[in-house]
Amino acid sequence: MFNAFPYSEWGDEIDAFWTFAGGDKIIWGQASLGTWIIVVLGFILMIWAFVGFVRLENGKLDHQAAALRATGALDRPAPPASPAQS
Amino acid sequence: MGVLLTSVLAQSDISIEDIEKMISLDSNVLAEQFYFYTVVVMWLIHVGFMAYEAGAVRRKNLMSTAMKNILTIAVVTPTFYYFGWYIYGCFEEGWPKSGHASPDVFEGFCGLTAPWSVGLGPNLQDHLSLIFFLAFLLFSWTTGSIMSGAVVERIRLSAYLILTAILGSGVWIMDAAWGWSAGGWLTTRYGFHDAIASGVVHGVAGAFAFGVVLNLGPRIGKYTKDGLTRQFRGHNTHLTLMGLMLIFTGFYGFYAACLLITSTSFPGWLNIYGSPTTLGTIAMVITIGFAGGFTGGWFGSKGDPFWTLSGGLAGVISVSAGADVYHPMLAYLLSFSGALVAVWSGNYIERKLRVDDAVGAVAVHGVAGFYGVLLVGIFAGGYPTGVNNVQSSLGGQLVGILAFIPLAFLPGYGVSWVLKKMNLLRVPPEVELEGLDMAEFQQDFYPEFERVPEVIVEPNGDEVEAAPILLDSYWQTTAGSSSTRSGS
After folding, report:
1. Quick check: A61 and B439 CB within 8 A?
2. Cβ distance B415 to B162 under 8 Å?
3. B133 Cβ partners below 8 Å, 6+ apart?
4. Is residue A56 part of a domain?
5. B289-301 pLDDT, tens per residue?
6. pLDDT in tens, B337-366
7. How far, in Å, CA of B349 to CA of B370, rounded?
8. Distances in whole angstroms, Cα of residue B2 to Cα of each of A19, B5, B24, B27
9. Which A positions 25-64 lie with beta carbon below 8 A of chain B?
10. What angle, rounded to 10 degrees, do the helices at B157-166 and B62-79 form?
């Protein structure tokens, strides 16, 4: 029935496999070396993504704004010349 | 069940403690399943916000608007993992006085919220930490999506992502630690009661958004030289209304996820403060809240479709704080009034304050949210809130509001001010005129449909071609400036 499957022993083995394993794999705090490595790498990716979002968009917007200005389509039309000038 | 129990008892080596462990495991797994499905349903909130906002903008800004909602998930999820959950677990007293060993109401919770802890990784002994994290993460996305609607059509995507990470993984979760947890100082000292997050999620997101739109400025052409208001035509009202209905559907998951249930730890359902309630109670309040809100929105706006549905949202938000204790008919009356307050304040913000909040988020979420917190002090004063049974009161609710508004508004205003000074807040005006989609994605997202001239509604109600008005506003915006990147 309930104990037919060795859940506890099996769980311990799986737990020991994971990088999140406790026991003698802990190097500092609650975590193993593997845990610390992926936590730090994930943090670096997160920060890199923020910088990337800003830089990538900045380039696109500057490029498009410059292209639109270059067309002259958004320029204010010159006022009509007065009769005296003509 | 009977057969199961008989089988268990038939095994002579099974003790009462073993049976208790098995039942406890079952209870935890059932709770795990419950919160899993609330997370699934809450995804609809984000589908809804995306559709709602994408339909409310002009065709030229469709994908840039939708992409904000999608990338909210990309930035709030990791930042909430690294910061947000830890703030919730360890800042209930304002600052973690005792580190990971702080005397939590749920003992040891703080220590399970650090990114490197056993609570935030696969753990066969812990069925609840990760699923609770996910439920709160979905609340965090919601706060970002609330701000998202207010800033459409002129904010930079990257600026929005920075702001939404700060709101979703810092600001709102700090106020949740203070006033939306069993051990929060507002709860334990003042009996602050905001059961389904009127102020904690909606009010705070609205106040943050208000700070942002003040720096962001109105869309080009929104106001006349005399300060009168023009209206832009959203390109797909049907999509907007469907989005709102999806948000409403997702709200049922949101409401359910605000309750606690593990039958071996405590009997029945508890609200976030550890006080008893029932799932039926809050489901009834949310449903009657929609009814009152739609009614209030309809009459408050004289039958405007957008405000009728937004009124439903405002109605529900205004009764959420007391949804665990209100009688349904009280909720009906209060939600009706909440919708009226939202419609009135939305018009005031747009026309009198001349703040361009594109979807009325500040009114619907911010004003209605804090209004809902206040209502608890009036209509549920004396209710014993939380594990210390501190009575809710008007004074306690006001303390919460006075703590939350600056906590939300100041970061929103401050960070957007810094971004503005760095020319990173708003898109160049040329791009705004052409539409953000061409700059961001180099394409029109309805390629098979012919373009028709954009229209705008003048303050007197006349619908006219937009181009001359927008160009004139653009020339005013850029007059005398060598750089057109200054935005508004």
Report:
1. yes
2. yes
3. B81, B85, B119, B120
4. yes
5. 999 999 999 999 9
6. 999 999 999 999 999 999 999 999 999 999
7. 16
8. 41, 5, 18, 17
9. 29-31, 35-36, 39, 42-43, 45-46, 49-50, 53-54, 56-58, 60-64
10. 30
Number of structural domains (chain A) is 1
Report yes or no for ipTM above 0.90.
no
Is the Cβ–Cβ distance between B194 and B200 less than 8 Å?
yes
- Once rounded to an integer, what is the mean pLDDT over residues B236-262? 92
Considering only CA atoms, which of B38, B42, B132 is closest in space to residue B89? Answer: B132
Which band of pLDDT confidence, cut at 50, 70 and 90, is reported for residue B304? very high
Comparing CA positions, the residue from B310, B236, B248, B237 lying closest to residue B47 is: B248
Tokens of B40: 């699934």
Q: What amino acid occupies position B189?
A: R
Judge whether A85 lies within some domain. no
| CB-CB under 8 Å, B82 with A58 | no
CA angle B321, B325, B331 (to 5 degrees): 70
* Number of residues that make up chain B: 488
Q: What is the pLDDT of residue A18?
A: 67
CB distance B209 to B358 below 8 Å = no
CA A68 vs. chain centroid, Å, equals: 30
pLDDT at A30: 72
User: Which residue carries 């979905």 as its tokens?
Assistant: B138
In a domain, A77, yes or no: no
Which is more confident, B16 or B246?
A: B246
Q: Testing the interface with B: which of A40, A47, A54 to mutate, by most B Cβ within 10 A?
A: A54
Which residue range is the domain that position A55 belongs to? 33-71
Angle at B243 between CA B153 and CA B432, to 5 degrees: 10
Of B354, B346, B348, residue with least CA distance to B149: B346
Cα gap B113→B87, rounded to integer Å:
8
In a domain, A61, yes or no: yes
Residue-wise pLDDT tens digits, B421-440:
999 999 999 999 999 999 99
Q: CA–CA separation, B328 vs B256, rounded Å?
A: 17
**CA-CA-CA-CA dihedral for B18, B22, B27, B33, to nearest 10:** 150
B25-421 CATH fold: Ammonium transporter fold (1.10.3430)
